[in-house]
Amino acid sequence: MGFEKDLLLLGLVCLLGKCVSDCKFGYSKNEKEECVDTDECKENLYPCGNNSNCLNTAGSYFCQCLSGFEHGGGSQDFEPFSGLQCQDRNECTDTKNNKDICGKKGTCQNVDGSYWCKCEEGYTNSGKNSTPCSDINECKDAENNKDICGKKGTCQNVDGSYWCKCEEGYTNSGNKSTPCSDINECRDAENNKDICGKKGTCQNVDGSYWCKCEEGYTTYGNERTLCLELDCDSFSEDGRPSQSLGGLADILSMMRNSCLSLSNPSTAAVGKVDGEALLEKLFTATEEILSPGQLDSSDGVTELLDTMEHSILLIGPQLKANRTKIETTETDVEIAVQKGNIRPTGPIHLMTENASLDTDWTTAAGMGTYPGFALAALLTYKNLEISMNESFEDLKEYKKDGVEPSFHVSSRVVSVVVSNPSTQKLNRAVNITLRHLQDKVESSEMRYICAYWNETGVWSTDGCSPQHSNATHTLCTCEHLSSFAVLMALYPMEHTFGLLLVTKIGLTISLLCLMLCILTFLFCRSIQGTRTTIHLHLCICLFLADLIFLAGISRTKPEGACRFVAVMLHFFFMGVFTWMLLEGVQLYRMVVLVFNATIRPLYLYVTGYGAPLAIVIISGIIRPTGYGTEKYCWLSLKDGLIWSFYGPICLIIILNVFFFIVTVWKLAQKFTSLNPDLSKLRKIKAFTVTAIAQMCILGLMWVFGAFLFQEGTTIVAYVFTILNSLQGALIFIMHCLLSKQVRDEYAHFLSCICTPQKKRYSDFSTTNPSSSQSQGSRSGQHTGESQI
Ligand SMILES: *[C@@H]1O[C@H](CO)[C@@H](O)[C@H](O)[C@H]1NC(C)=O
Ligand SMILES: *[C@@H]1O[C@H](CO)[C@@H](O)[C@H](O)[C@H]1NC(C)=O
Ligand SMILES: *[C@@H]1O[C@H](CO)[C@@H](O)[C@H](O)[C@H]1NC(C)=O
Ligand SMILES: *[C@@H]1O[C@H](CO)[C@@H](O)[C@H](O)[C@H]1NC(C)=O
Ligand SMILES: *[C@@H]1O[C@H](CO)[C@@H](O)[C@H](O)[C@H]1NC(C)=O
Ligand SMILES: *[C@@H]1O[C@H](CO)[C@@H](O)[C@H](O)[C@H]1NC(C)=O
Ligand SMILES: *[C@@H]1O[C@H](CO)[C@@H](O)[C@H](O)[C@H]1NC(C)=O
Ligand SMILES: *[C@@H]1O[C@H](CO)[C@@H](O)[C@H](O)[C@H]1NC(C)=O
Description:
41% of the residues lie in helices and 20% in strands. The strands form 11 sheets. Strands 20, 21, 24, 25, 26, 28, 29 and 32 form an 8-stranded antiparallel beta sheet that branches. Residues 758-788 have low confidence and may be disordered. The protein binds 2-acetamido-2-deoxy-beta-D-glucopyranose (8 copies). The site of one 2-acetamido-2-deoxy-beta-D-glucopyranose has 3 residues, from loops. It is found in: Cell membrane. The chain crosses the membrane at residues 497-522, 534-552, 564-582, 602-622, 642-665, 686-709, 715-738. GO terms for molecular function: calcium ion binding; G protein-coupled receptor activity.
């Protein structure tokens, strides 16, 4: 073999070289006789065999397998001429490296000295054959990205693939990896049924469709809404009972024009309507008509409410926003609109400043055909309650114990509008929470009721009821919709009528008696004297006080007059007490200081009228606003002014009690004395009893009077009134009817009237009082009382 011959030759050369050159093994001499390394790899032919490299080292050399080859030994390196051959390694089956050498989606292919990965569809190793396969991101991939899903699709990469998410109105039905394209809703067999209603023609556009309606029908400028019939006659001015409402006529004509243009196919195309602007115009136009004092008839109110409801129903579907809120000085409205092919569900909460509405979309949209939109609106009128503060005649059921209450509107008036055409019987009641105009809790005298404005122009309540009421709010639940408010049913205090009657009759009797007393005390000559003067002025004070009480105690308006009434009442009732004190003083003097029992009239007047005047003036200066309250024209109970009445009264009563006790004691002594002047003593006794009775009644009356103006219960009012009436009667009976002198004069007077023949005589004796009075009284003082 050639190989063995080579080996033999090599050995020969080596031996020769050694002998000749003397260099180390693996080295040889060059031209300059120096020993240099021999490159055995170049000198020898194929020292390592196929698929391997020969590597020269200093003085030696070795073999190494190429990458991807192996020779079966422990390492890649091996001895030349060892007989070993490097052979291809199968990377694909190599148990050490095999795991995921090409990834999960690649198949390993072994080749001589190497391998490559074959990737599944949707995976790549980007041309580098020996790397694992990974997902291709088709969406990010620059080259493919252009319109891979079309203009209306969004690419979504997934492992090994991608898909396109289409916008509404576009589809790639069947193959998710194809570009999105317009859906032709009009041709689409499944949806085609009445997509535009019976009076509409479907028009496909890129990504959507719209309905072209016949004359008289409209989609309110919306896409995807059925062609609905539009009745512009509800904005017609004909046949309206109150055409006097100028502002309403303008609104009606504006809304009618808008309605007509909506129902005209050439002007009502999609995108042309501007509901927001129209709504703004509507509420600006209603400002004037709603300003206070403009609406004065219930017909006018009904028409206005009706027009506003129809207008909102017309404008609502034209609005672009889901929620619209407009506030003007007279109104506050919130409108919620839902559009789309799917019937909306879920709760609705609408809120204006003093009212809120809770319902749901199912109620607002109704159960009938869904036209492609639904709306709910809450409209608060800020001043309408003044114009609607009447027409309560339908509320008979709120009678209580036969008493018919009086009603007030006690919240703002609100209108609830929904697109549901049948609002007369909702399948779920709506909740309306209304803020009261005044914070007030319900009581036996007052109830809150939820009422709606019946189209006949009266407040009604059937189908509406209050769920819950506190001082500030009432929650109303209603089964139908229109305009609502919370009313206040005021039940007059029980027996008020009776009390009024008793007061009137009692005070009238009292006034009559006092009148008689005054006349008697003035003209009856035989009883003139200090005591009669006192009685006279006590009666005058009581008479005027009662008269003012009867006429003015509850005339609280105007304020000035009420204050005057309170001042006069204070003065005259005070006067009654000061004169009563004088009576006590006089009795005391008559019994204890028998000798000088007369008092000069001037002193009497100064005390009897001066003291009350001083008290009133001082009170008026200290508390000028304390006279006249909201309920009564009397002294205010709040700021202590009432004590300028009760303080002096208490003092007077205490003093009088003292005088009376002393008087009674002295009287008793005199009765038991040795020779009592019985007739005079009996007279004084009668006077004393009268005075005590009078004081008791007057004192007691004002004890009740203290409660009367405070919490005004019926019993107190009755007692007060009856005691008050008793005063006059008591004075009349005790001082006039029971007095023999007076009786005689009465008899004489009556006989004069009945028998005119004796008139001449009477002229001399009793009548002609104006000339004889001062004389009489003076003589009375001398004759009558100084004797006692
Ligand atoms: C080495 O390779 C050559 C050419 O590829 C071939 O002809 C020869 O047989 C191979 N030698 C061995 C020992 O395989
Ligand atoms: C879906 O479309 C893509 C891209 O046009 C195509 O490669 C693929 O084969 C299609 N698949 C089916 C299931 O038709
Ligand atoms: C209106 O409501 C729809 C449905 O609830 C919602 O998808 C949309 O984003 C809303 N639009 C606005 C402007 O709030
Ligand atoms: C109305 O209020 C009542 C009682 O508070 C409640 O049970 C009902 O669910 C409410 N209805 C709506 C529509 O909110
Ligand atoms: C309604 O009228 C009554 C008297 O008739 C009045 O007291 C009340 O304040 C009025 N209410 C409104 C809201 O105008
Ligand atoms: C709401 O009611 C309260 C109390 O009646 C009132 O003070 C307030 O001004 C009202 N707000 C509006 C916007 O009407
Ligand atoms: C209005 O009142 C009348 C009579 O009270 C009644 O018959 C009618 O149903 C009411 N209208 C509404 C809408 O409730
Ligand atoms: C009264 O009721 C309303 C609504 O139900 C609530 O918001 C308010 O806090 C209540 N007021 C009081 C004083 O309880």
